[in-house]
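Let us work through a complete example step by step.
Step 1: write down the sequence.
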Amino acid sequence: MPTPTYDVLIIGSGAAGGMAAWVLARAGANCLMLDAGPAVDYEKARVMKAVYDLPYRGFGKPGRFPHIVQASEFDANLWVDEQQNPYSYDPNDPYYWVRIRAVGGKTLRWGRQSWRLSDYEFHCKDHDGHGENWPLSYKDIAPFYDRCEPMFHVSGKKEGLPQLPDGIYTPDESRDSVCVQRFSEACRKQGITATKMRRATGTLASSANLLLPGALESGNLTLTTNAVVRNITLDPKTGLANGAWFIDRRSKREYHAKAKIVIVGASCLESCRILLNSTSRHFPKGLANSSGTLGHYLFDQFYVKGSVVASVPEAQGGKGGRNLMGGGGYVVRFRNLERGKREKNFLRGYALDFGSGFTPAARLLPYYGAKLQEKMQELAGTGFNITTMGEALPLYENHVRLNPNLKDEWGIPVLHITQKYTENEHNMAKDAMETGAQLCRDAGFEVLAQHAQMVPPGESIHELGTVRMGADPKKSVLNGWNQSHDVKNLFVVDGSCFPSGGVQNPTLTILALSMRASEYILDQRKKGEL
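Step 2: predict the structure and record it as tokens.
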């Protein structure tokens, strides 16, 4: 029986791949989706167990997840086993690559924060002279944001700010606690906006339950699980992509999938890895890499967890009352908003995520023994915490390449990752710490601890770049439609396409870009161009 040729091959089932399938299959395109992991059986795999019933008492088998701080033995079936899926980096500059291989991808565990980018990001070079502009503007993607937000039931509060555009929200009219009101007022007096979180609502706002069901119900999507893609193939006569080789995760048998159009949405670094492994006579340094930029300009948002930890004095000793503590919010970027002007000793800016009502950690207090226990009891439920999320600059030096001496469980060369934060990011983290601490003091809180130590690159799970889009084919891999400059029937629709990223969580933008690219594909097919 001959192997079928699909209209579209989609690699990956997360936000990017799921949206592509939702658009294309429902429009009549015959699609094949390959995902490296299994489908999650929620009835069978989701059970309650006591810690003492787990072999490693909840901590997990040593060595499986050395770089995934989010993982535990309770959800070990979700995260990528790093013994099977290794990667490398300079020991002096670690990178924490956080991966999920299962149908739905990282949308199975994302924080659901849903912020729009603005022209501060899309026209970043025009604003401060650094990097490259996106080959599109906010007005080009806004209609797709408008459609994605209702699909994911995003809640929020409109603020009318150019650096954080408003969207189509379920209004968040929840009452703020007194401590949140006091902090927000302290921000307002400094000309800073503190607002509600903008997040997708529902227990599981995932590709697995919001996108893939509609695509499968169309009858035009074939979903193949446990399919580890090795490389994309080209037709030697036309130079166009014609499919991909993949390996069955369990049997390790090798198969070739055929398609007229190939869409890659395997997540940022995995998509880049597939392209780097897709070498040929035409592209000896990786597929669609005539520019030489494939693998370069890796960046993310840097995180400083617990940048400031404070206590609300009125709540100490259990005196807070029901309305004083609890809840949180988001401080919108406020630095370097005036075009061409740098306020501080860094480019771009940061946002602050804050929450309240917890008990500060014992390690933050200068006591021990009975005095420590007494102080912990006094501070119980009084904590106010700030996390800094800052924009990292895309730099050519931050890159990934194949490590020819290291392969995964299926014999595929893995990535060597190089990313360092620069003085720009460190200066930004220090300013965020100092500003956050002062805002807490202005609100009448007692600052217990503050620091500016960023977590290792990658830990935020917001890795971006390496297959970036741009107007100039000599400086980028993709055009403004997520389409390869070199191979017109190849599209990359995940976070790897970002030329810059701002401080906003990227998932909503990935969804919007994938929707936009998929509708462009439909239009081009109708015109006979694809």
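Step 3: interpret the result. The chain has a mean pLDDT of 96.
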